[in-house]
Structure formats: structure tokens, C-alpha cells
Amino acid sequence: MAVADYLVVFTPSGKRGRFATGTTVLDAARKLAVDLDSVCGGRGICGRCQVEVAEGQFPKHGIVSAAGHVTGWNGLEERYAALRGALKSGRRLGCQAEVLGDLVIDVPADSQVHRQVVRKGADSRVIALDPVVRLHYVEVAEPDMHDPASDFRRLAAALAREWQIADAYARLPVLATLQKALRAGGWKVTAAVRDGREVVAVWPGLVDRACGVAVDIGSTTIAAHLCDLVSGETLASAGVMNPQIRFGEDLMSRVSYVMLHPGGDREMTAAVREAVDGLIGAVAAQARVERDRIVEMTAVGNPIMHHLFLGLDPVELGGAPFALTVDSPLDTPAEELGLHLAPGARVHTLPLIAGHVGADCAGMILAEAPYEKDELTLLVDVGTNAEIVLGNRLLACSSPTGPAFEGAQISSGQRAAPGAIERLRIDQATLEPRYRIIGSELWSNEPGFEAAAAATGVTGICGSGIIEAVAEMFLAGIVTHDGVIDGGLAARSLRIIAEGRTYSYLIRDGAPRILVTQADIRAIQLAKAALYAGVRLLMDHYGTDTVERIVLAGAFGSHIDVKYAMVLGLIPDCPLDHVRSAGNAAGTGARIALLNAAARREIADVVRRIEKIETALEPRFQEHFVAAMALPHRSDPFPNLAAAVTLPVRPAGTASGERRRRRERGG
Ligand code: FES
């Protein structure tokens, strides 16, 4: 007599098939390639195969589904519930429930391998979880005098038998832990398998959680995010100053250090690796995760940081033609980089784009996916070297903005730290300033400000503060379109102070005295003109005069007020509500690459298609740079900005006015 078979429909996938009485729900799911997880291979111990049996009539499928259409609770489920806690109401272990009738089976999100990880933020992309490392519990045959197969051969046989993993292999650091793990687990172990073949860790017994870490190696700070590779959740994040700062504040001074000190690259490599390893220890401790459970790492960084971290000499990146040693993504064993993770863990570095445009930019592109958008998007990572990307058809360049935006080269400038002025407004009638410092919510003209500021003092101006100060000075008429502090106003305000042949604006008298000098304005003009000229160059190549959306990335980008950035002409005109800060987009890209193997292939492919523009080789760069020295710009219109802010009347210094003046001067 033929065995009865029943229709089983899985939701949300809609996959369906007919199965004989006694087939487990897990087996049915596997036959239909339904996304239902399992680590223990159906032994009823991992709990990852949980499903819900839908009840009722399903006319669409022509069936009635009921809880009674699967076998009742069995001993293994009882045991699981006793050890790990009761299942949510209505749930069953898919590996234990057997088909007895027609069924509609719902696979909840937490039982799916490829579940979606929703990121915070309105227009952030959703990440589908698909980590490169998966966990597999196996029971390995015990050694036998009559069968000389090695421990690894028997592990590989178990992986092939139970998980269809063919030709598994492992590197020495993993093999070195194998025998102890097998014996400690009584021949029952969990193997972490990378890319469906490479065993990167073997732990005794059942292990149902593995982690990965995404690291953004910035020239100033290093940030790490520890993620659960099963749920996609970020378990802990932390940051630390890049210790290479002691070899040089900015990138070029670090390259010079290598040029002047033989072995300097090795010193810097050791310093950054030690910092990354320490940071991984910190996030692991924060999340109470053993370091050997971290099976994978991804890393992003600008080309010099990338090279130094991998132990590659960065000297060629210090001058034209800025040749990279390697630009493709790499999967380097963690122990070769001095990192203490799972014994076989690898570090995936994202691809580099060009000599100045690094894996951090690749991370930003992956996080923002401008190539998937219809609107023309401009991505800017403002740093000492701004990285700029335009388009859906992608163009990229970098521009040497220098460290002014970080408060360096500014007379009262400082890094963003408690006590630094970060917000500033100027009364246009009296020219009096009011400001806020990091560490206090009060404005300087509010009662209690001095008491609140006493703990830190008012110590200087940080990058976002200097942007606001210069922009407000411009809006108040203290600074002209050409960036000159108007000495004529000294008669009107004691805050305009003569210093030799130029003038300064006094923000706060005291210790220290905080001023914006003419040289400060010049430094900001040079930095913003470099950034704008890079953007313009990409717009020229793209064939557009406007952009539809601007995303500012990086620490600085997340602190500046976009309105002031536009008043200064750091970025081109665009509706203000279409300008957004993306925070650490490079780090987000590293996290996406950690959680989704396909994203790694995607960004490697996208990077190959990017059209790279080398600003140093473009004759028009200088022309754009000069025009961008004016506030907000000598000739480019800013209609969206003008609708939101009352801008000082632009003098006849447009491009045509400029030509006329030159003719009059006989130039
Ligand atoms: S597959 Fe592990 S409990 Fe069902």
C-alpha cells in the first residue's frame, strides 16, 4: 500500500511539496531549500530549527492545517525545553515534528539563516544575513586500531556525511587544537566552517553562537564592532586612538617617518596591530564573549592604514604615481597579523579603489549603495584627505583637504574633546558671539554656563566649531566673500582686533584667549576649496551641475551642521533636507561585509567599475580650487541655500566680474 503523502507549504517563502508520513519538518524544508537553520543536524539540541504550525483553512492552498497534523511533543523536545527553557507558545523543533497531515509551516525570522538585519536610519539598506562562516555540530567516529584514519580525516568524513561538506581542510593552528577538542567533547564537536570548506575552529560539544568583528582603522581612531554572526546583532562597539599618532599626526608625516627611519614601517605595523588586538579584547570582554569564538574579521582603512596594518610598505603611497601594493580584497590568517581570535580566523580586507582612495571608501560605498539609487548621490568622507564619490555610475577621487577640519592648523583649534567650542552663533546687530562647548548643553550666554564649564574650561575650537564660527562670521558680515576679516568693523565692535596688517575676531577673552584669526580663515578656505574642487571635478566628469542627495560620512561629517557646511561652500548646493550625516559609514560597510558574503563580492565588483579621477592630473582642479576659495563660491549658484538662509549679497565678483577686473588691471 502506498504511503500517504501530504502537502506541506512553508511561509514566508511559499515553497511547497508533498511529503510522506513521518518526514520531519526539517527534512521537508531541506528538500525544498527552505531557509530553516540547524546547527546540530536534527539532534534536538541546538533549537535553531524552530517552526510554527499554522492552524485553520487555507483555501489558497486547498488545505486545512492543524497542530495535530504533526507528531506530538517527544522526549528530545522535553529535554531541550528543560535545559534551554520552554519554546515560545505554538513553536516546535522542526527536526522532531513529523508530518501527519497537510501543513502550513511558518519559519520565524530567528530560525532563518538568511534573516534580514534591519539597520537604524530611514534610508539605510537592509542587510540579509549570510555570514561566510557557519557552525556545524558533528559526531565523529572514535579512533580505531583497525582503521588508521587520522582525527581530521574522521572529522572531515563526519562533515561530509552529516552536512555534505566535501573536501574540508584546516590550517595548522586549527589542527593543533583538534585532538583536545575531540576528546574533551567525547567525539561530539562543533566545527566552524568558512566558505563551505575551511574548518576555522573546532570546539567540544555544541556551540550555537559564533561572532565576528568589523574594524575601521582610521588614521586618528580605530573602531571595532563585535557582531553575532547568527542574529546579526552588534554586541559591543568600542574605539581607541590610533597609536601611530606618535609617529606623525597625519598620513603623510607617517609615510615620511618610514622614509626617514629604516624599520619605521614595522614599528607602525606593530603599533596598529597591537591596538586592534587590544580593542578586540575590549569588545569581547564587554560582550562576555571568549576571543576564540570570534571566527572572522573584516577591516577597512585608507590605503596607508591598510598597508601598514597588513605589513606592506606604504612608501610608494607617499608620492606620484601613488602605486598600491595590492588593491583586491584579501583573506589573511588572523595570526599572521598578530591577532588573537579563533585559531583559523581570517581577516577580510575590503578592496582599495586607488592610491588615495581606500577600503574605507569601499566600505562607505557598500553602506550607502549609491549605485542602487536613482537620485544622483554625492558621498563625502571628510578627513585630512577627503574621499569623494559621485553617482550611480560611480566616480571617485580624493582631495587633500589637510587637517584644518580637525582643528589642526587653527590658532585656537583642538580635537573634539570636552571644553572645545562646537557650536557658535553671532548676533548680526551687535557682533557678539554665543557658543556651546562639548560637555555642556548650555549656551555661553545662559545662566550657569560658567559653572558648568568650570570642570573642563573653555579650551579651544574643534572642527565643527570652526566651521560654524567662520560661517557665522560670514553671515554677520565680519568676513567678506573673499574671506577677509573686515577691519572697518573694529570701530563698531571690540571683538574685531587688529593683529599686524590683518584682523582677528575675539570669541572669548581669558585663559586661553580664543580667536579666529585671518590665517585661520585662510586655512579653512584652503581646506574647503580643495574639497569643493574635488566634488566639482567629479561633477564635470559626470556631466552635471547639480546633485540630488549628499551624504557626509566620517566623525567630522556627523558633527557638522550641514547648513553651515553649505554656507562655507564645503559642499555644493542641494536641498538642505537631502543632506545627511551617515556617521561611520566605513565601519558600517565593514559590518555589512562581515554579515553577508555576497556583499563582499558585490563591493569587489563595484570597485572594479568605479571611474577613478586623479585630482593631481586634472588641469581643471586648480581652476575649480581658485573659484571655490570664495564664500560660498565665486560663481556657482546656491539657490537651495539662499532659500533657507539669508546670504550676504554676492559682490560683482562672479567669474565675468573677475574677468572684467583683470582687464581693468591690464591682467
Ligand atoms: S536542528 Fe538542532 S534542534 Fe533541531
Please describe what this structure looks like.
The protein contains 18 helices and 31 strands. The protein is elongated and about 100 Å long. It has 667 residues and is of the alpha/beta class. The structure holds FE2/S2 (inorganic) cluster. FE2/S2 (inorganic) cluster is lined by residues 26, 38-40, 42-49, 93-95.
Percent range for β-strand residues: 15-25%
Biggest sheet, strands in spatial order? Answer: 16-15-14-17-19-18
Number of helical elements:
18
Helix content: 25-40%
Structural class: alpha/beta
Small-molecule binders here are: FE2/S2 (inorganic) cluster
Q: Please, what is the average pLDDT?
A: 91
Ends apart, CA distance between termini: 104 Å
Number of beta-strand segments:
31
Which residues sit in consecutive blocks of at least 5 with pLDDT less than 50? 654-667
Based on CA atoms alone, the radius of gyration comes out at: 30 Å
**Biggest sheet, open or closed, and with what strands and sense?**
6 strands, mixed
Shape: elongated
